[in-house]
Amino acid sequence: MNKGMGKALLVTIIIATVCALGLAFTEKMLRKRIIDNQALAESKSLLKVLGFKDVKPSEINDIMKNSVKKIQFGTSFYHKATNVQGKIILAFPMKGKGLWGPINGYISTDETRRTIVDLIITRQEETPGLGAEIESESFYSQFRGRKIFADDNPSVVKISVAPGRRSSGEYEVDGISGATETCKGVNNMIRNTLTKAMEYSHVQN
Description:
Shape: elongated
Oligomer: single chain
Order of helices and strands: HHEEEEEHEEEEH
Number of strands: 9
Strand order of the largest sheet: 1-2-3-4-5
Number of helices: 4
Helix content: 40-55%
Strand content: 15-25%
Largest sheet: 5 strands, antiparallel
Distance between the termini: 76 Å
């Protein structure tokens, strides 16, 4: 190998090394930005069910720090806040399983844990136009103000999601046509979360 070829090879190696380092740095920064954006979106969803509507991204961290309290017990937790109307709202994380993958979200109740305030889905992998409609305002709106328990039996969750059809009673909300399995998964997730919410009522907050 002559001197000219050696220099060319060295330059090529240096350029390749610099490019590789640059790509690694860019990937790291992009990954951090993605994680930060995901955390911001999660906090915004939580604030929404706690009654903080139309929150600007620049306001989210301050509200989370100053107005929302995380109640931890063992490996479980929920959030408590006094919203802009001065009402105490409790928000419980939901985890369930749909037809194609995990379903996550939040459901909030009033301080007595007897009436639903709001609901939001933060993750789902269901079929677009069918099961994915669980992540829609028309689905969420059915839950607001709904009683969780019957007046004569305040220990058993009554609210439910009709399995792929229209509701047929006071404690049932409309399912999504053509998405029976998704509706069953959401129904189990909501009912399990609300049952646990009553069990959490003994926790000091």
